Amino acid sequence: MSKPAAHGSIRRRLLLSLLAGAAVLAFVVYFVVQTVARQVAQESQDNVLAASAQSILDGARLSGGEVNVDLPYSALSMLDSISDERVFYAIHLEHEFLSGYADLPAPEGDPSGAPAFLSAEFLGEDVRIASVRRRVSTGAGRSYLKVSVAQTLSGQKLVLSRISRISITIGAGFFLISVFMAGIISGSAIRPLDRLTASVSRRGPKDLRPVAAPVPTEMVPLVASLNSFMRRLQQSLLRSEDFIAEAAHRVRTPLAIVRTKAEVIQRVSDDPETRKALKEMIHAIDDSSRTAGQLLDHAMVTFRLDHLVLEEINLLHLVHDTVERLRPTSELKDITMQAFGEQDSVIKGDPILVQNALHNLLDNAVKYSPAGSQIDVVLALNQNEAEVCVKDTGPGFPADELDSLPKRFVRGKNAEAVVGSGLGLTIAKEVITAHGGTLKISNNPGGGACVSLLFPLP
């Protein structure tokens, strides 16, 4: 049985889609954790820097129209307590430098007094700077006093690096858990399809009942189409079976009627030419009838082999029944037909096909055996086989054609004068092969043919 060409896998596509979603979510988790951690760290540092700058600004005093600034110990100690960062500061009155690091970059202060922040590079290090200012009155008028405090970012970078590693671990763990869950989910999603496949695969060749098992909504159209196909197939098979039976009846009956009338006319006719023509006509009718019959038999055999249903067969009973069916035909040629076999043997097979195969072998034996001869049908049991052997006293088989005779429409060189179609051994070969057995063709030592059907025993 040929398999349809596979184009991708639903399970793989679903799994890859879930994994792609998991990878995106893992990246989002990493990005969110990184962003939040960076914002929290920066806000924390900004708050401390702003508080330190504000503390310095609050300690500024006016004395004699001049600004005096004392650096409170707490203003810078709160920065030292956070980490081992370096701290810088600068105090300006308008554009006049008062104290600290003169070249320390500083953001423009907010006129409202709110802290302003800036990230910059100072003395070869990245720093975060906070500036606050307020208006003061001096001898020269009202001016802005601005205090800037800066702190290096190396400690913050270390913290963010640790948080980054933790974020990667969390993202990787989330992804690994997602891989496990994706495998479970994809297997669960595809399981109804597996159950449907198993349900259909377990059916016999003639089991064309509609699939009634509950399926997910997405599979309802597929199951409905499958049920519709099986219904059409069942109707087609029934029509084919009826056609074969009807064709056999309609072909054989008219030919039999024509043959009977030709024989009647032959008996009453006194004209030698007419009798000769009628004889040739009867021979042609026999040939046509046999060929048509065996073609229809072969069609029936092919049909049943495609839908083979095995059941127990009592081979001894089948042999005796087939012999009795052909006994009237053999007696017309004064041929004695006997069946031998005392032990019952049971095989697994299609009784109609097995009987048809044996019928063709016996029909060939009757056709090729001379009048007054004998045909023996012997049933014997071997170790693992049951053998049905048909022996006749006809011309036998050409020794150089034994391998080719079971082929379709092939006949022996010594059988050209006998009516036949070359399908009898073909049918027997196809039937026995379908049942796991062997067709054996040979010649009897004393003359005649010996054809055996070897069936495996269950």
UniProtKB/TrEMBL annotation:
Domain of life: Bacteria
Pfam families: 2CSK_N, HATPase_c, HisKA
The protein's Enzyme Commission number: 2.7.13.3
Principal localisation: membrane
Recorded catalytic activity of this chain's protein: ATP + protein L-histidine = ADP + protein N-phospho-L-histidine
PROSITE patterns linked to this entry: HAMP (PS50885), HIS_KIN (PS50109)
Ranges annotated as spanning the membrane: 166-185
Localization in the cell: Membrane
Xref: Gene3D superfamilies: 1.10.287.130, Histidine kinase-like ATPase, C-terminal domain
GO cellular component terms attached to this protein's record: plasma membrane
Keywords: Kinase, Membrane, Phosphoprotein, Transferase, Transmembrane, Transmembrane helix, Two-component regulatory system
CDD domains: HATPase (cd00075), HisKA (cd00082)
Residue ranges of every copy of the HAMP domain listed in the record: 187-238
Domain (Histidine kinase) ranges: 246-458
GO molecular function annotation: phosphorelay sensor kinase activity
Protein name: histidine kinase
